[in-house]
Structures are given as structure tokens and as C-alpha cells.
Amino acid sequence: MQHRVAVTGMGMVTCLGSGVKANWEAVTTGRSGIGPITFFNSERFATRIAGEVKGNFDPEGYIPAKELRRMDRYQHFALVAAGEAIKDSGIKFPPEDPWRCGVVVGSGIGGLASIENGHNMLLQNGPKRVPPLMIPMVVINLVPGILSIKYGFKGPNFGVVNACTSGSSAIGEAYRLVREGRADLVLAGGTEAVVTPLGIAAFNALRALSTRNDAPEKASRPFDADRNGFVISEGAGMMVLESYTHALARGAVIHGEIVGYGATDDAFHFVMPDPEGEGAYRSMKLAVEDAGISPGEIGYINAHGTSTELNDKMETSAIKRLMGPDHERKVAISSTKSMTGHLIGAAGAVEAIYSLMAIKTGIIPPTVNLETPDPDCDLDYTPNKAAVRDVEYAMSNSFAFGGQNASLVLKRYSENGKGAHRS
Amino acid sequence: MDDLEKKVVDLIAEVLVDVNKENIQMNSKIVEDLGAESLDIYDMIALLEDEFGLEITDEEVEKIQTVQDVADFIKEHHKAS
Question: Which site in A13, A112, A293, B49 is 20 to 30 Å from A319, CA atoms measured?
């Protein structure tokens, strides 16, 4: 038996602010969160801009005081986003059957700042001075581990390491756990904090980042001819996924449903996407088939849209192939990375939430900075201004260094909706 | 409490944030009274070593029980160095 999978909680922290509400206001008004790097002196770096999470990003106090020193920043973000999602879900504690509640969290790199700090201590002061808590601050599976301790969830629990696809993969795998009846409820999402000297230097060495340092808010420009790389940012996104029957039984508010997930790999190159977009196309196609719908029923695609030439062209051609000539110009597409920057392992989770918010509110967030369209990118990317649109199904795409592709299909919640073939 | 003792209490409080600082007395036993677990101790040692520029071996840690023991250890090794 396959279960319907309801989304009953959402939470996020990005450079646009803490909380789904603040984020949604920002992305629907086209506000950019990108600015000069302030965390360290970036004078000697080719890239001196990023999407930093600034100020007090934990106004609700989800991070226990003891954990402030003992956890890396990407773990803090996860706690804050999870705190909001869990509160939003209204689930009661302790959970009725903890063995049926799981946690799946993705991150691309994990505790990079803690690796840098530990290595500095090693070089400067010797091996005895390496912080005793460095390992738990670094390893990615500690995030679902920490969350299981915090919420008493004793069911399936693992980290997902899939670079820029981590967040989507985590939500997709969590969706499968619930759909297949291996858990009643799974807290799932992604988190990342690599705006650090080593992080920026390394992505710069790969020539992946925009160097538009004089105009940070203009730097992330997906599908625009004048783009010159992605803009790195940080944060986390978390969802509570729950079997429909479990959600109904406890009277939960259902934001929407996840009805499809596709996952493939390009098997092409370690950092470049296959220009033919075969893997991306297949990932989207699998997700649509999993949802039991036709591609033309998708009303909105939150594109991976990194603002790199290779991705934007490849993704456009893959979307065209999926939708076909009759539908390719009817679907509303946007890249919210134009405003949030690229949250790497958190991107897919944050964007799945934006996709669900588009369904819930009927507002399509724009792709900002789309001023001179790339002639090869000729679809409706919702340029510069939000659009109003009735959306029943939305798709969220993520593609990674390593060739991993993941696509999620989200659906508007209605008690007797299609998809009732899954009870 | 002298300045060094105050500093020791501050550092212990920084690690044991669940413990109210007023409850950290010089004769408090770090494990029994303040509830420190082994990871808290390692964390504490790292902080003390950084702050006072000294090294505390695992054998020496075994002998330390109270907050006063910590302060005495630091005073002794500070002088020696």
C-alpha cells in the first residue's frame, strides 16, 4: 500500500531572513539578499559577495544555549529551520510512536568552518589543541542525530550528501519513507554554511562563482546573457512530511502534498552538467510519472537556475523536452536563486518550500536580474516581477556537481484531490 | 574569590550553560555537583588550556575534582612556567 504524503510543517532561514513568512514576502517582492562578504576580510578573493545570514537568525530561541559553542553554523541553521517546521506542524511531544518518526537531512559539505578552525589550531598550536568537539561539528549525519535527540524521533535517520541536490534528495527520500509506510512522519530538509575563507577560495578556484563584486544584488542572474557564475549563500530549509492518514488523525493543517520524486545521474562529468540534459530530463520525467500526471499539468517549475551558462541552457532544453512544444511556453518558471543565491545543500529544501508557497498563494516568485535574456533561454522565467497564477502542481529541480539530479512534484491539497489512487 | 578563580568559574559556566553560575562554588564537585559529562570535561580543558596557555594531561585531569582543584592547578603551573 502506498500512502499519500502531506506536508504539515515548513521552516527556513536564508539571507532573506528567518521564517517562511519573511522569506515569502521577500521573494514575491523581488528582493535580493546578496551583499558584500562581512564574515571575513575578502580583499584578496576574486569573489567578495555572498548571501550571508545576518543578525539574530534565531529569534524564537530554537538553539539551546549549550549548543551555540558546540555546533557548527550549518547545524544552528538546521535547528532553527526545524524548530519552525515542527512548531508549524503542531505535533505533540513526546511523539506517540517515536519509532515511526524519522529525520533525513542533506548538506553538501557540512562543518567547513569547524574544519578550518581545527586545522588552524593544529598548525598554530599543535595536535593537542584541536577542539575536542570538532568531529561532531563537522559530520553531516550529526544534524539528523541532533534533531532526533531534540524531538525524540527514533525512526529512520540519516544524512544525505549530494552537493547542490542534497536538500531535494533528502525530501525525496523522506517522501519515499512515508509513501512506502516505513515511517508516519519525517522531518526532512537541507542545511549549509560554507561562506568561509576556504569555501569561497575553493569555489573560486573552480571558477564557479560570480565576481560581480561592484553590484552584489545584480550578481545572481539566471537565464540572463550577462551572468558570470553563481552566488554562494547559506541557510536551511525543513519540512515535516507525514502520511495523510496520520495527519488527518491528529487534525493537522495540511499545506500541500508531495506526489512525485525523480532521481538520476548524468554519468557525464564530475562538475559539468551533461549539455544534452538527458539526466535532468529523466529526473523530471520520473517525478511526473511518479505523480501520475502529464507534464502539461505542471503549472510552475522552481528551476535549479544557478546563473551559470551551462546549467541554464541545459535546464531550459530539458524543460522543453519534458513539456513539449504545446506546453513549454505555458509553464511558469522561475529561479529564486536570483534572490537567495545558491544555498548548495539547502537549496532544494528552501526551493521546495517556495514551490509549495506558490501553490498555496497563487503567486509565482520572479527571476530577478533577467534584463538581457540569453537567446538560448527563451521560456517564461517570470522576469523581474511576481506573477499571479493558479497552480495545482509545481515542480522543484536540483542538479549537482557529481551529476546528481532530483526533481520533486508538489500538489495543492484538497481532500478529494487526484492522487486519491493512493489512499 | 580572586580574579583567577573568578575566571575559572566563568569558563566552567561557559561550558556548563545549564548550570546557574551562582551555583558554581569553589568546593563544587565538577561531575557530582555540576553534572558535567566526559565531553564537558574535554571541552573545559581545551578552554582552560587556551585561556591560561598551559597543558593539562589526562593523568592530571583524573586528580581534579572540584572547582578549587582547577584553580589550584592553574596557579601552581602558572607559577612554574
Answer: A13
